[in-house]
Amino acid sequence: MAVYLVTSCDITDPEKYAPYVPNILPILEKYGAEIIAGDKNAITVDGEERDLTVIIKFPSAETLTELIQDSEYTPWMAIRLASTTNRATIIVGEFDASTF
Description:
- The chain has helices at 14-17, 20-30, 61-69, 74-83, and strands at 3-11, 34-39, 52-58, 84-91.
- With 100 residues, it is an alpha+beta fold.
- The protein has one domain (14-52, 59-93): Alpha-Beta Plaits (2-Layer Sandwich).
């Protein structure tokens, strides 16, 4: 089953962050991930406004875990974490209104 990674972050060091996206795109492709939406101008409805929000679809939770543990990705993850304040959420279940 597909899972979705939703990230919202403030970019605290734009110079350090700059090479992150171009370098992770081929890694995401390697794992069959698809960027569903990404916006530097997302409209905040409530809560804290963030610089960037991205939704990425992965084929499975296992695929997402494999990417996170990939030695090709881990240096880029460290750069992302060092250059942003980040909140990442993995949505793994299909919506079922009766469970809410």
